[in-house]
Amino acid sequence: MSEQTTSVTGQGGSRPIDPGTRIGHVHLKVADLDRALAFYCGVLGFGLMQRYGEQAAFVSAGGYHHHIGLNTWESQGGAPPAPGTTGLYHFAINYPTRRDLAVALTRLLDGGWGIDGASDHGTHEAIYLHDPDFNGIELAWDRRPDEWPRQNGALAFSRKPLDFAGLLAELGEPERAEHLAVLSQYR
User: Fold this and answer.
1) pTM value?
2) How far apart are CA 85 and CA 80, in angstroms?
């Protein structure tokens, strides 16, 4: 990951996007709707808002109309994209607190789901994994902007190992040795 940032604001005479803009829901092609729902609702804990037979479902946190759409319209029984092709790298699910990120991690591990990696980027802590259809997912918790690392006034991302013991300590429970043993391979 590059330590250098380049601003493209204002190129081509365009004005910057409104700072209140946010990314909305993500809609994923899946091969098997029941399998996808077992992961997003059963493992990650999203609630099912609406289901349209075997073709589509919409899940959310907290009763929002949908954070994630899942569909088989063009992908029923399909395979994940081949390596070396373009497409979604990952999408992020941002949790409001570090403790919530710890809960998400334990849900994954308790459900027998592995992770692909983890990092402390300075601005946020991230856990990387993939869903059953190999869509990349980042589970993240953002630090407050006044805590973000800066170098010469510019944002300075880092890629340090995630402190799993510290993260799990957020739960206020004794550290689970079995979880830390599994997570030790991601240092």
Assistant:
1) 0.87
2) 10
